[in-house]
């Protein structure tokens, strides 16, 4: 089972996070050059160190992007058995292993999308000295042109690719999976760019229109990736004609394969799709070797039939009921003049957690 790749990538994410705060502190110390800052970050490859020196301010956005991806992952999986525990708080996720599952696919995609997004946003805010707004585009349908500050997704995508992909050098199946999902995440950012336009001309006649690209809220990208998660494709790695090379193809029997003789032809997954190598554990029980935290202690909904319902969430183990009585002021009336009188209301609430 290829388990080194996830440790490695999660470690680098942890590292970026751990060092972001230091960078923040250090970047205010003008006396410290970028070289010093970048030399202090442990575990960077020479190429990453070079990138850090070239754009230390981008490293801050990079750390922000990792955080953004993590928060989105946790929000999207809030009511699932697997709640994005691989990207836990602070540095604690450095040693969590995720098998090559759909959940791992989502984790990589959302992290790399977060980084691309955050860097693109920082560029258009003018926070990174080595990038800015996309250059104005030439007039393309006759009456309108690109103008204003167009988000430059390219820089963010390139930086995310160079930085996050830099570790996936083994060329094994798991590295290919990670690279594929990283790319799908970045592509989702690019595909989500929206065009905003403004009309100019006599009394809003719109004889002239200026358009620019903006980033949507990151939630929208999380939603897109979540759809891809549900439709993630099972792949296997097969040798290429090149000596020692590997490539990913759809596993036979997985959905929408061609019919008849076509079926024999290997089909590559689309670049926008998420791919996984191994089926997911059920995440009911704690198993560090698969990245499963188990659902003991998780809050569940007694009446829901969905994944957040106690039956499914607790895997049939049952749940504990906790009762709270909340008191608050209510029925407040204003009396002339001038005071407010309220009643005290108490409300019983219950909370359920998995056994
Ligand atoms: C970006 O720049 C603004 C001011 O232009 C500043 O308030 C903000 O903290 C900066 N953010 C980052 C991540 O550097
Ligand atoms: C995820 O679930 C674990 C228990 O399985 C819990 O300790 C942790 O706080 C949860 N994380 C989030 C972000 O909800
Ligand atoms: C529990 O699930 C029910 C039915 O899906 C829903 O109406 C209710 O708002 C949920 N309660 C909480 C606390 O999420
Ligand atoms: C009631 O109190 C508990 C514990 O203090 C809290 O978690 C919960 O959100 C409160 N519920 C309402 C409806 O205010």
Would you write up a description of this structure?
The chain is of the alpha+beta class and 355 residues long. It has nine helices and eleven strands. Strand 2 (194-200) and strand 3 (208-214) form a beta hairpin. Helix 2 (34-40) packs antiparallel against helix 3 (46-54), helix 4 packs across helix 5 and helix 5 crosses helix 6 (153-164). The chain is globular, with a radius of gyration of 25 Å. The model is unreliable at 1-15, 17-32 and 88-96 (pLDDT under 50). Bound molecules: 2-acetamido-2-deoxy-beta-D-glucopyranose (NAG) (4 copies). One 2-acetamido-2-deoxy-beta-D-glucopyranose binds next to loops. The site of one 2-acetamido-2-deoxy-beta-D-glucopyranose has 3 residues, from strand 10.
């Amino acid at each position: 089972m290829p388990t080194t790749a996830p440790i490695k990538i999660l470690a680098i994410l942890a590292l970026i996070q751990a060092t972001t705060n230091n960078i923040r502190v250090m970047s205010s110390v003008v006396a410290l050059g970028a070289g010093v800052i970048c030399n202090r970050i442990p575990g960077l490859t020479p190429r990453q160190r070079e990138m850090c020196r070239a754009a230390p301010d981008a490293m801050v956005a990079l750390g922000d992007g990792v955080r953004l991806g993590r928060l989105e992952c946790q929000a999207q999986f809030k009511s699932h058995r697997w709640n994005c525990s691989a990207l836990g708080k602070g540095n604690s996720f450095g040693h969590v292993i995720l098998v090559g599952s759909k959940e791992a696919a989502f984790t990589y995609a959302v992290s790399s999308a977060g980084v691309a997004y955050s860097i693109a946003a920082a560029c258009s805010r003018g926070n990174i000295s080595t990038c800015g707004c996309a250059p104005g585009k030439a007039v393309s349908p006759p009456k309108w042109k690109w103008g204003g500050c167009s988000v430059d997704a390219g820089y963010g995508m390139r930086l995310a690719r160079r930085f996050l992909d830099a570790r996936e050098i083994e060329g094994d199946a798991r590295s290919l999976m990670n690279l594929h999902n990283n790319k799908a995440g970045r592509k989702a950012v690019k595909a989500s760019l929206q065009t905003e336009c403004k009309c100019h001309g006599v009394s809003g006649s719109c004889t002239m229109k200026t358009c620019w690209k903006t980033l949507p809220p990151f939630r929208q990208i999380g939603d897109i990736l979540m759809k891809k998660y549900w439709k993630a494709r099972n792949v296997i790695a097969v040798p290429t004609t090149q000596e020692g090379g590997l490539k990913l193809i759809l596993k036979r029997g997985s959905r929408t394969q061609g019919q008849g003789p076509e079926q024999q032809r290997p089909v590559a997954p689309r670049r926008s799709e998420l791919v996984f190598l191994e089926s997911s554990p059920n995440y009911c029980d704690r198993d560090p070797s698969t990245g499963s935290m188990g659902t003991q202690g998780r809050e569940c909904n007694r009446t829901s039939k969905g994944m957040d319902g106690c039956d499914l969430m607790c895997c049939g183990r049952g749940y504990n009921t906790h009762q709270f009585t909340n008191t608050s002021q209510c029925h407040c009336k204003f009396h002339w003049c001038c005071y407010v009188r309220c009643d005290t209301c108490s409300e019983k609430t219950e909370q359920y957690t998995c056994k």
